[in-house]
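User
Take a look at the entry that follows and flag anything odd:
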Amino acid sequence: MEWFIIGVVAALLTTFGFVPQILKMYKMKSVNDVSLVTLFQFSAGVALWTLYGIYRSDIIIIAANAVSFMTLVVAIALYYHYQKP
């Protein structure tokens, strides 16, 4: 049971890891200090983790990475929205 709790806590911490960056982009209306390559790299990683979770039928892996992917989609959308021409 303890490992389940550790897994849930780890999933929560990493799932919402980009939320502070999203809030900063929104508040500052700037993406000057954001790496688009990093956002795409993490997106690919969490997409693959989601597929792995589906393969393993592990709801923690699936849920955490699916939510992470959605937060990264928001971050990428904000990046393009606030990107200076």
About this structure: Residues 73 and 85 are 21 Å apart (CA to CA).
